[in-house]
């Protein structure tokens, strides 16, 4: 829209089949499974951006993962088994010690129409183990990871 | 205890052990399990308030449960296996076709101190199956349920 | 390839990524997740063979799925997040009201070597709801399904 | 086998509520959840017998848990949400580097009758991390643990 076009944040799509066991007696996806898939999509996002898996970063720099601090999800349409979902994710905001990862879960139907199933904004941190071995602590966002994922 | 006492909303406590398999390679509860437990605490809240189980209400009035529309959670401290958690829940707000259910997950430690682990606000609806058999729809809040749960 | 070739049972392969949240504090797949995936592979097997999804068969013939009667699994090697697993499944035996579905979960490594992760034999039935609405009952194996899946 | 009566193995009971989200579209417990609960009952058995939690034994002796080698389960009756299940477990056999843990999952009904829901025999090992950091290995059964649990 302007002379200097806004940079589009890097977006990664994660595909997830919905299985029978993901659904509850109301025959729709039991919502906790959306969070399972979003968590996988979050990790997948970093892998696709070129960040090594956490068990490697733990050895190299102590980084063990990106635990959640805050999550806000809005459920728009139901999904059921037989559906295939696309989870679009990108980093919407980088802060000092945290970042906002944003997700849209969509379903492309047989007639090519697309349904929005769920939206979610997560605040995550980069974490290392605490020195006393009890729990975890936030570390500054590694600049090389920020560069890979923007 | 005053002339016009504030009405305290009815609160129910649901107790949950944390198991080995609830924890991830960071040795803390994998966050999706908090949502499993909150969903159980939600149903438990209604049962404790005297609402029949959903398979009975489905026959009587078509009500199949209280699916989530929106959830917002804040993760404060980590928990791990061996912990026992108390999930306090109440209805913080009644709307026309939805309500806000609020949760505090706490851990009482060996020294009697209490840690806040997680807070969550959910917007839920009362749902029935759609007549065409596809998906679900919101119904007005049954007044007898509201009376039992306030 | 001979005059009287042995009939190979139809085999379907289901691919599954292992995610961080599928692993436990020992950093290996928490075994219950193998059963999640096997259950999905079982359903996927029938879909790939051309059997309609259970919500369609329920309307047509009352068939709601293939619940487990007996399962026997042997865990050979561990898997962890970052792995991609192939679940090979076929029907090893057809009985009157039940059948044996057999699974091999394998991991193809970067050097093209293949590890056997887990083997499982399940006895499943074809089930319909009981007339009194309480629980389920076994039905005779539908011959058209047997034909599709052999 | 002798004049002195056989010693009854130590048995521990673990109680588990069945929740809505534990059930599938057939409205019965999705079987993978039985394995979640059996795994919890296994750990609970050792805790009740006086064995320290695995994160303590890991520091003391390297023992990180009792992973499964083999499991054989038989599903007898279905269960659904609202049920409370009792999981009875004991060690049925001690071998050199493994042991057989046996489970009976029962439901006591409102009329005091008891239904057998599921039986399971597991072969488990005592495990430590491998020195190269890749995966786990079996260790000899610690005699003090055997003494506590027999």
Topology:
Four copies of one chain form a homotetramer.
Chain A: E1 12-17, H1 32-49, H2 54-61, E2 63-65, E3 68-75, E4 84-94, E5 98-108, E6 114-129, E7 136-139, H3 143-149
Antiparallel strand pairs in A: 1-4, 2-6, 3-6, 4-5, 5-6, 6-7
Shape of chain A: globular
Give the overall average pLDDT of chain A: 92
Largest interface, per-chain counts?
A-B, 28 and 28 residues
Q: What's the gyration radius of chain A in Å?
A: 17 Å
Total number of beta strands of chain A:
7
Residues in β-strands, percent of chain A: 35-45%
Describe the structure in your own words.
Four copies of one chain form a homotetramer. Chain A is an alpha+beta fold and 150 residues long. Chain A is built from three helices and seven strands; from the N terminus they run βααββββββα. Chain A has helices at residues 32-49, 54-61, 143-149; strands at residues 12-17, 63-65, 68-75, 84-94, 98-108, 114-129, 136-139. In chain A, strands 1, 2, 3, 4, 5, 6 and 7 form a seven-stranded antiparallel β-sheet that branches. In chain A, a hairpin with a 5-residue loop joins strand 5 and strand 6 (114-129). The two termini of chain A are 20 Å apart. The mean pLDDT of chain A is 92. Chain B binds chain C through residues 20-21, 23-25, 27, 30, 32, 81, and chain C through 20-21, 23-25, 27, 30, 32, 81.
Structure summarized in a few sentences:
Chain A has 150 residues and is an alpha+beta fold. In chain A, 22% of the residues lie in helices and 39% in strands.
């Amino acid at each position: 829209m302007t002379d200097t076009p806004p940079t589009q944040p890097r977006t990664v799509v994660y595909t997830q089949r919905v299985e029978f066991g993901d659904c509850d007696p109301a025959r729709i996806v039991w919502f906790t499974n959306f969070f399972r898939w979003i968590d996988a999509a979050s990790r997948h996002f970093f892998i696709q951006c070129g960040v090594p898996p956490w068990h490697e970063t733990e050895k190299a720099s102590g980084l063990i993962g990106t635990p959640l601090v805050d999550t806000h999800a809005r459920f728009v349409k139901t999904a059921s088994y037989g559906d295939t979902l696309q989870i679009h994710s990108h980093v919407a905001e980088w802060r000092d010690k945290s970042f906002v990862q944003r997700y849209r879960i969509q379903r492309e139907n047989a007639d090519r129409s697309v349904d929005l199933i769920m939206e979610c904004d997560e605040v995550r941190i980069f974490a290392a183990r605490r020195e006393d071995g009890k729990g975890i602590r936030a570390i500054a966002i590694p600049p090389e990871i920020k560069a890979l994922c923007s």
